[in-house]
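User: I've been trying to design a sequence by hand for this structure and keep getting stuck. Would you show me what you'd pick, starting by listing the structure so we're on the same page?

Assistant: Good idea, let's start from the same input. This is the structure you sent:
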């Protein structure tokens, strides 16, 4: 039996508070809005068939469906990403932020939950004016924020800020926007499919060339091993989702099941991040792969494409959560792309 995954993520308190201000009875939400499951499915089908296209905001009931389902999951994703930022940059200094592809404000919600003491002046970049209006109303009612924010239709209109956030938007561009290059911290969140993930991996090198140091998921500044040594592999995260009962009731009527949620992300900074304390810290990139006579799991710690390997004769392979950090022991045997760790306990690093 697998142990409880320490990387499991629940719904942030600020998200739940904001939804309760929209719908006082979340447990009865499905009774109030019986059309939610069918609308959520229609939006999901749209994303599957027309990958990369904008959300179909014209659909009836799309605002409520998006807010309850997709906005909630996006807030959980960004919360997980910001957890890495807080760990590696515990003393970060920031007063201003740009949110490119701001939608209904998932990034600000996640930030206010993870960094409640650090209030930012926000610039939101959203091409759809209807969505911006919804976001502004939500922001004033749900978050009870009196601070003014700026809304832009294009990234070119944004002025320099300390942090540049992008959610599902940067892959629409051919080059890094000036707003990203001019920031001190860049946080990028993209879908977990091969195309978008590999595009994000390419943006990584461009950030390094602009003087940034990669904070996460990478544990090194060398070339990306998946781009250098593979035409198929892609880097993405997977975290178990702790679902509230009201959300589970909606999901029970959907063909979509989110016991885990996936995404690709990248955090870069011009500051010096906290050191890991060991040169042998690696990011677990893959799920467990069972092959004849052994079990493998992909890890990343350099530009070499590597797999932890447990031979069958050494017994059951150790469970290591996808996306977590581990310290590879010095005594591990290197055989080609395999790091053989059978009979050795792999220590997990807080991630």
């Amino acid at each position: 039996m697998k142990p409880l995954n320490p990387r499991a993520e629940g719904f942030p308190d600020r998200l739940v508070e904001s939804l309760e201000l929209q719908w006082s009875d979340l447990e009865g939400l499905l009774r109030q809005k019986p059309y939610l499951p069918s609308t959520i499915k229609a939006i999901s089908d749209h994303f599957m068939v027309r990958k990369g296209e904008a959300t179909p905001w014209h659909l009836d009931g799309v605002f409520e469906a998006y807010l309850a389902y997709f906005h909630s999951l996006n807030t959980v994703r960004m919360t997980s990403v910001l957890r890495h930022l807080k760990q590696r940059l515990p003393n970060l200094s920031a007063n201003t932020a740009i949110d490119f592809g701001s939608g209904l404000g998932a990034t600000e919600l996640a930030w206010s939950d993870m960094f409640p003491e650090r209030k930012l002046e926000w610039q939101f970049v959203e091409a759809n004016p209807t969505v911006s209006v919804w976001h502004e109303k939500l922001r004033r009612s749900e978050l009870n924020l009196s601070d003014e924010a700026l809304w832009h239709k294009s990234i070119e209109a944004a002025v320099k800020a300390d942090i540049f956030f992008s959610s599902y938007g940067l892959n629409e561009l051919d080059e890094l926007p000036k707003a990203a290059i001019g920031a001190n911290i860049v946080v990028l969140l993209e879908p977990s499919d091969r195309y978008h993930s590999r595009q994000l991996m390419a943006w990584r090198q461009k950030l390094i060339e602009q003087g940034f140091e990669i904070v996460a998921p990478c544990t090194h500044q060398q070339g990306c091993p998946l781009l250098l040594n593979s035409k198929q592999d892609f880097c993405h995260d997977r975290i178990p989702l702790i679902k509230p009962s009201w959300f589970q009731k909606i999901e029970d009527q959907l063909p979509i099941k989110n016991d885990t949620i996936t995404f690709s992300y990248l955090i870069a900074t011009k500051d010096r991040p906290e050191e890991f304390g060991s040169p042998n810290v690696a990011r677990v990139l893959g799920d467990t792969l069972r092959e004849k006579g052994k079990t493998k799991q992909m890890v990343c710690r350099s530009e070499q494409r590597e797999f932890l390997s447990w031979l069958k004769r050494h017994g059951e392979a150790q469970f290591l959560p996808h996306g977590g950090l581990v310290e590879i022991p010095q005594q591990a045997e290197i055989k080609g792309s395999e790091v053989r760790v059978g009979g050795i306990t792999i220590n997990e690093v807080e991630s």
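That's my pick for every position. To get oriented when you compare it with your attempt: Residues 62-88 form the longest helix (27 residues). The first strand starts at residue 96 and ends at 100.
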